[in-house]
């Protein structure tokens, strides 16, 4: 049995812990970053792409890009390609895809790759990703507007 004073102390401690958690600020996503679901156009799989521009300094564009897929065919190599166009109007019209990375899925059909893209002036542009599997799977992102820092 817990003494009366012990219960009151426990209640006060729990209240203080909850108040501290409520007062803790939550990290906010960078408003100049972008993310999109990856949706299967052919075959199977889904995923997400996250583009996070960083401050490269002196007007140079730099971004970290994360691509992950799941529910895809196991042990399959995927090529990550991208098409870029301007102006940054949310309408991806370019079909000029360039390979930027590869990843291979696990036996469970999941895989991820993270890479950095840099160079050129800090600009805004539309970005469209297409992830192509060696088995014929094609996953596509939505059109994302990327704004450099």
Could you write a compact summary of the structure shown?
By secondary structure, this protein is mainly beta. It is 13% helix and 48% strand. It has one domain (29-147): Sandwich (Immunoglobulin-like), CATH 2.60.40.
Question: What this model shows, in words?
Answer:
The chain has 149 residues and is mainly β. It has a single domain, classed as Immunoglobulins (Immunoglobulin-like), CATH 2.60.40.10. 13% of the residues lie in helices and 48% in strands. It contains one helix and nine strands, in the order αβββββββββ. Strands 1, 2, 3, 4, 5, 6, 7, 8 and 9 form a nine-stranded antiparallel sheet that branches. A hairpin with a 6-residue loop joins β2 and β3. The protein is globular.
Number of strands: 9
Quaternary structure annotation: single chain
Described by strand count, sense and barrel closure, the largest sheet is: 9 strands, antiparallel
* Helical segment count: 1
Question: Residue ranges: pLDDT <50 for 5 or more in a row?
Answer: 10-32
CATH architecture: Sandwich
Report helical residue fraction.
10-25%
Query: What structural class should be given to the helix and strand makeup?
Result: mainly beta
- Proportion of β residues? over 45%
**Distance N terminus to C terminus?**
60 Å
The overall number of domains is: 1
What is the assigned CATH homologous superfamily? Immunoglobulins
Task: Name the overall outline.
Answer: globular
Order of helices and strands: HEEEEEEEEE
What's the CATH first level? Mainly Beta
**Do you know the CATH topology?**
Immunoglobulin-like
Rg computed from alpha carbons, rounded to a whole number of angstroms: 22 Å
Average pLDDT score: 83
């Amino acid at each position: 049995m817990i003494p009366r004073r012990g219960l009151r102390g426990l209640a006060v401690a729990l209240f203080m812990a909850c108040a501290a958690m409520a007062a803790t600020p939550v990290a906010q996503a960078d408003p100049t970053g972008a993310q999109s679901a990856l949706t299967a156009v052919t075959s199977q799989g889904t995923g997400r792409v996250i583009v996070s521009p960083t401050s490269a300094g002196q007007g140079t564009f730099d971004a970290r890009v994360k691509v992950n897929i799941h529910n895809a065919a196991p042990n399959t190599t995927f090529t990550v390609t991208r098409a870029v166009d301007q102006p940054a109007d949310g309408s991806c019209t370019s079909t000029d895809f360039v390979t930027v990375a590869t990843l291979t899925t696990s036996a469970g059909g999941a895989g991820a790759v993270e890479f950095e893209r840099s160079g050129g002036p800090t600009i805004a542009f539309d970005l469209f990703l297409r992830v192509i599997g060696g088995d014929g799977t094609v996953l596509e992102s939505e059109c994302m507007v990327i704004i450099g820092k």
